[in-house]
Amino acid sequence: MKRQRMAAWGAAAVALALLLGGSGCGRAFRSDDGGDPSATSRVTVAPTSDGTVRAGESVKFVAVSAGSDGQPVSASYSWAVEPADLGDLFATGAEAVFTGKKPGTGKISAVASNGVRGEAQVTVVAGEIANLRVESQNAKTTLEAGETEHFVVTGEDLGQNVVGQSRSRVVLTPVWTVTNGIGTITTGGDFTAAGAGIGKSGQIIATVDNLQGSITINVVAGSRATFVGADSCKGCHATEYAAWKTSNHSSAYDKLKAMGRMPGCQGCHVVGLGQGGFVDEATTPGLTNIQCENCHGAASLHVAGGGDKAQIRTGEQVLAQPQICGDCHTGGSHGTFEEWQQSPHATHGAHPADSFEAGTSMACGLCHSGLIRRAIKDDGKTVAEISNPTFGAQAAAVSVPCATCHDPHKKTAHERQLRYPTSSTAYFGLNSSSPQWDDSIQICGQCHNGRAAAVSSTSRPPHHSPQYNMLVGDFGPKSQTGLDPAPATAQSAHRTIEGQCTHCHMYSKAANHSTGAPGVFGHTFHVDLRGCAPCHSEADAGARRASTKQDITNRMNALKARLDAWAATSPLYATYGNLAWEYTNEGVLSNPNEDSALVGPSTADQRQIPAAVKQARFNLYLVLHDGSYGSHNAAYARWMLDQGHAALTAAGIP
Question: What's the distance, CA 477 to chain centroid?
Answer without folding.
Answer: 48
